Amino acid sequence: MYSLHNKPKAQQTADPSKYPQGKFKDKPCRKCGTTFSPKAPSELYCSDPCRVTALNDRYLERTYGITWDDYERMLEEQEHKCKLCGSEGFLMDEKRHSMKLVVDHCHEGGQVRGLLCHNCNRALGLLKDDVDTLQKAIDYLGGS
After folding, report:
1. pTM to 2 decimal places
2. Do 53 and 31 form a contact (C-beta atoms < 8 A)?
3. Phi-psi bin for 52: left (phi > 0), alpha (psi -120 to 50), beta?
4. Strands 35-36, 27-28: pairing kind
5. How far is the C-alpha of 35 from the C-alpha of 6, rounded, in Å?
6. Is the dihedral of CA 108, 111, 114, 118 positive or negative?
C-alpha cells in the first residue's frame, strides 16, 4: 500500500521505436478499465490515481485481508482521524507512502481494529499490545 515504486506517468520514458512493433498498443487500465495509450509496454494503469489505488488495494488485501474500499469506509467512519488520538495523521515518507493513517490489527488473531496515526500505532506496538503494560503507563502518567 505504502510503496509507490513505479515512476509517475510524467516520468515514464520508453521509446516505442526501440520495440519491434514501433508503437505501444492501447490497452484497458487494470483498475478502472478505461482504454489508454501506454508510454511503455509494462504500464498497467491509465493514471497515477489508478496506479496508487491499485497498489494500495493489493497491499491491503495481501497484508490485512481488506480492500481499498474497506479502508476508505473506515476512514469515513472515523472522520479521517486517528481512532486513538484524533489527529489527521501524517505521511512517513511522501515518496513511498500515500496514507496518513495506518491499519492497526491484532498481531495474534489478525483482526483489523481501526486506523491509527503512525505514532499511536507504534506506541501500541512498543507496548506489545499488552493491556496490563498500557494500564501501568496510564497509572504512571496519572501519578499513581
Report:
1. 0.75
2. yes
3. alpha
4. antiparallel
5. 20
6. positive
Cell 491491503 -> residue: 60
Cβ neighbours around 99 below 10 Å, total: 20
- Exposed / middle / buried, residue 27 (Cβ in 10 Å: 0-12, 13-18, 19+): middle
Cα 22 to the chain's mean position, in Å?
36
Which of 56, 57, 34 is CA-nearest to residue 45? 34
What confidence tens digit (pLDDT) does each residue in 87-135 have?
999 888 777 777 899 999 998 888 999 999 999 999 999 999 999 999 9
SS3 per residue for 17-41: HHCCCCCCCCEECCCCCCEECCCCC
Q: Are 46 and 9 in contact (CB under 8 A)?
A: no
